[in-house]
Amino acid sequence: xxxxxxxxxxxxxxxxxxxxxxxxxxxxxxxxxxxxxxxxxxxxxxxxxxxxxxxxxxxxxxxxxxxxxxxxxxxxxxxxxxxxxxxxxxxxxxxxxxxxxxxxxxxxxxxxxxxxxxxxxxxxxxxxxxxxxxxxxxxxxxxxxxxxxxxxxxxxxxxxxxxxxxxxxxxxxxxxxxxxxxxxxxxxxxxxxxxxxxxxxxxxxxxxxxxxxxxxxxxxxxxxxxxxxxxxxxxxxxxxxxxxxxxxxxxxxxxxxxxxxxxxxxxxxxxxxxxxxxxxxxxxxxxxxxxxxxxxxxxxxxxxxxxxxxxxxxxxxxxxxxxxxxxxxxxxxxxxxxxxxxxxxxxxxxxxxx
Length: 354
What we know:
By secondary structure, this protein is of the alpha/beta class. The chain has helices spanning 57-71, 99-113, 146-158, 169-180, 219-230, 234-241, 251-279, 300-308, 330-336, 341-347; strands spanning 13-17, 21-30, 33-43, 49-50, 53-54, 77-82, 87-95, 121-129, 136-145, 162-168, 188-194, 199-205, 208-215, 287-291, 312-314, 321-322. It has two domains: 1-86 and 146-181 and 319-354, ATPase, nucleotide binding domain (Nucleotidyltransferase, domain 5, 2-Layer Sandwich), CATH 3.30.420; 182-314, Nucleotidyltransferase, domain 5, CATH 3.30.420.
């Protein structure tokens, strides 16, 4: 579950089952870079996915089948990502020990850190650092409730797919970032992924995950705020949020409602960063990279940068991915890029990864 992307193995289709849509991405290696083979997006009805759990399996199956039929995709092996309260990611310190000893003791250690019965979760771990001459090593512990994984496997199977890898959305975003940007050993980067219902803050140093936290604030909160302020439907609020207009209202009328959520979200992100800084030796964060559809809201990035006193930029997970301009409109890819971080990160995985 925790393996980083590698080269040379069997490619998978990345399937990001998000709260508002299903997104699929397929890449193939082309020299030292990757090439975009396929990109598909199909919307989901409200409440189909709630806190990472599949509530309407039929809607997800229909969305997957629509994408596969529309794009005539032959690949059946997929990597899917999970998120929400059923996923626990926790960096811990353990005494230095041999890999076999770690494998034998990790379950007992997990019981001290995970708020679920150990028999109800799938457990994984990765050694982050084990500096020579020290008595402790840093281990990343991950637990996902078995019933959530079962839901995703069932839906994929019903859509005619084989799940080769179950990953965690936060790791997929980190993988996409590492493939798209130059990672230096000492640079500390905050990755902010704003989904429709969940926002994840992950902090990495030199590509190593130091901290991650989920929040229930997301893009849907903007729609709710606009609905409440202007008395419009959810669909009209979505249009206004994205800068469009509906009968009787323009995006400018919705801006005060958007600004309220910008401030709410920035405050929530600041609390996550403050928590990280309280435990980190230096607490320095050099920059923040934002993914998710909210990254494209006109005032969001500058507002966040000013509120957090950080350099903030929009993620483009496709910046080093070649794409045939006859098949994929470059302007569309540039615009949709921030929403593809999870899908691209999953597509970088390969069958046989840990």
